[in-house]
């Protein structure tokens, strides 16, 4: 049985494309390289959705964002460079159990259903139509991935906002929905503001501790 990924130009809803992907998975195992090759460039956005959906909880497992973020980063960089995705041969040869893959895709699917209610093809088409704009969008995807990879997993929502940005970008790219892409930019801005507030709070707390220590030393 030859595995065929959903066509990236398919006009079917994104959720339907994921369901078709699940139904089309062959046998008991599939090579990582085979899966990535079959998905193609736009189909890799399904992988971004799957990996990002794991972080749509207030607090993530420490270290998980670095591992999954690195995978998303490779996808984003391949899009920026307009080249096929490169993965190490050792990773490409790894086998994935299709039952586990189907289970993970199924979990991602529920989030896609929720976000797809707000997604419509070719809204704000200027955001997704030109190559120059798509290059900027891909750079924003990479930046959102870097925000996701910051070592702040134990801090509530530190991974959630970048993950929402990545999912919005991915859905926007697949659905050609400029409004979803615009939402991705909104989540990127919210992430930057959130991290800025956190850093400001840490700086204020450090300054308070230092001032208290200095005052105590002067009193002695």
From TrEMBL:
Domain of life: Bacteria
Keyword DNA damage: no
Keyword Transmembrane assigned: yes
Keywords noted in UniProt: Membrane, Transmembrane, Transmembrane helix
InterPro entries for this protein: ExoD
Residues that span the membrane, as ranges: 44-77, 139-158, 178-206
UniProt name for this protein: Exopolysaccharide biosynthesis protein
Organism lineage: Bacteria, Pseudomonadati, Pseudomonadota, Gammaproteobacteria, Lysobacterales
